[in-house]
Amino acid sequence: MEVFAEFLEKIENMQHRERTEEVLSWVSEKYPNLTPVVKWKQPMFTDHGTYIIGFSVAKHHLAVAPEEAGITHFTNEIVQAGYSHTKGLVRFPWNSPIDYALLEKMIDFNILDKADCSTFWR
């Protein structure tokens, strides 16, 4: 988690910082083979040099970015979970619990779908 320390320190809202750290820690513990990195000033996780999942902090939510393919694949589950989304990210509101099962599915999907990917992005 040291790689994310500077990013986390810059989150002024302590509740947002704690929630973000909780999610990043969960990913690190659940997926020890993923590499935690900060690129474009955002925390993300990679696998064999390819992007798997990234996060960003907004006023009302933690944005989770599994790339467009991940959003498309899980659109129905994202909507059923009550989250709003764009083509590139899912909004996890600060005042709602994190659906870790859905987050796990998105990460697992990207790991499998990008197993043979040799580029950072799809």
From TrEMBL:
Protein known as: Iron chaperone
InterPro entries the record matches: YdhG-like
Any one Pfam family match given in the protein's UniProt record, by short name: DUF1801
Species for this entry: Lysinibacillus halotolerans
Domain YdhG-like, residue spans: 16-111
